[in-house]
Amino acid sequence: MMHARRLWPPPASATLVRMPDTLQSTTDEELMLRYGGGDLPSFRELYRRHSQGLYRFVAWRSPRRAWVDEIVQDAWASLHAARAGYQPQAAFRTWLYQIARNRLIDMLRQKEPLPLDIEVLAEVPHEAHTPQQTFEQKQRHALLHAAIALLPVEQKEALVLQQFSAMSVNEIAVVTGAEPETVKSRLRYAMQKLRAQLDASGAGGRA
Predict the structure, then answer these.
(1) 97 & 175 share domain
(2) Is the domain of 119 the same as that of 140?
(3) Are 71 and 166 in a shared domain?
(4) Same domain, 45 and 133
(5) Which entry of 94, 117, 120, 201 is 20 to 30 Å from 144 by CA?
(6) What is the pLDDT tens value at each position of the chain, 207 positions in all?
């Protein structure tokens, strides 16, 4: 199967360049403001910090593998298009995730409802491990991933943002457009259902 050449965001190799210490200690919001003024190294630092987390979030939410790269690329392209008018009214990360989430919602509205493609989760970037560690990790996480995938969409989204993106309740509320108390309820029900599913599969102690 042929794939179109990726034009945005920049190739992964561009993110391997060592960033100056001044950039590494700069906030996301300041980096984005600098990028709005034309500073490309600031964008590279933002991409280094958030590319994997954004991909992970979209991969968990998207029902189709083929959509993930498109949504992520569109999010970065939208960020690029909005750079000059950016104002840090919210945390940069929540703003970036909102862009991707809105793009996914648009695609879901345009297409027929589809079941979750579980295989897409296997492609979510993880930290490097040895082959043995990777195999064992996949075994440990397989049931957990399947259980999370069965959660209602809103509960799954809140849980993924909390557990995999380390977002606070308030940050999740900004990304999803829900009240903080609603987010708390979604997280509570998600954890209850997740534990019940893992206990029923006999994997509760291994997940």
Answers:
(1) no
(2) no
(3) no
(4) no
(5) 94
(6) 444 444 455 544 444 444 555 788 899 999 999 999 999 999 999 999 999 999 999 998 888 888 999 999 999 999 999 999 999 988 999 999 999 999 999 998 887 655 555 444 444 555 555 555 556 566 657 778 888 888 999 999 999 999 989 999 999 999 999 999 999 999 999 999 999 988 887 655 544
Domain count for the chain: 2
Q: 163 burial class (0-12, 13-18, 19+ CB within 10 angstroms)?
A: middle
Rounded CA gap, 68 and 64, in Å?
A: 7
Residue 187 domain boundaries: 127-201
Whole-angstrom distance, CA of residue 77 vs CA of residue 69? 12
Ramachandran class of 162: left when φ > 0, alpha when ψ lies in -120 to 50, beta otherwise: alpha
Q: Does residue 144 fall inside a structural domain?
A: yes
By the 8 A CB rule, do 99 and 78 touch? yes
Computed from CA positions of residues 59, 102, 175, 114, in that sequence, does the dihedral angle turn out positive or negative? negative
Tell me whether residue 179 is in a domain: yes
pTM comes to 0.74
